Amino acid sequence: MSVPPIPPLVGFIGAGNMARALAGGLINSGWDRSRLILSDPDPAQREGVQHLGLEAHADNAAVAARADILVFAVKPQMLAVAARAVADAVQRRRPLIVSVAAGVRLDDLERWLGGNLPMVRTMPNTAVLVGAGACGMYANARVDQTMREQAESILRAVGVTVWVGREELLDAVTALSGSGPAYFFLMMEALEQAAIGQGLTREQARLLTLQTAYGAAKMALEGAEEPALLRRRVTSPGGTTEQAVKALEEGGLRPLFQNALDAAARRARELADLFGKNA
Does the global pTM surpass 0.70? Predict the structure, then answer.
């Protein structure tokens, strides 16, 4: 009778919301708690993982020295300092590196860690906190298929994943899904306010807005049709929906979204330049 392989030890540098969400997602998907460890110099952050029943260390290097997969889940402006502090341990252990720090390019992170490492850069969004995230992923040439599957399993535990073939495409991912929750929150806010203007109470407007957004997303996710076809199906000629959609189109909704994504992607590139230059 063969003995099942021991899963890799996943270590998280940083124990904030993102690390806790990823670790919690792995636990919910059946990952062995004994194969998950975290570190954070902040005692309040370490206390925040107690409900998960996981090891939480003050010393980042202690986790880097043991991990088979090392996930950097710190704020991008703190990543250079955190990476340099564990570089010696990383070079000895040579784990798969997974970065969830927004806007930091792999070349910069690899330089801070000493070079010649298998690395995956990811761009998740805040919906990972509720297990419904959307994440773009990019791997450097040292990442083999097994490593890709390992990295993907971590992010897939809290949502959906999409691999891109060029790192610069993560700027587009940032603009779309990374910043995207705010766009939908803004639309919900605007719809709620417009409905109040039509005479509904705030509570009525909010409930109907949120359930309509949820229902539309559910239909799009569970059906086979693309959004354009779904829109046409619910837009009867001469009806109310047709008039509303016409007003949105004439108001420039499509070019407005294009401008928004262009602006977000441009800022993502600027921040990546800034993080790399200043570290």
Answer: yes
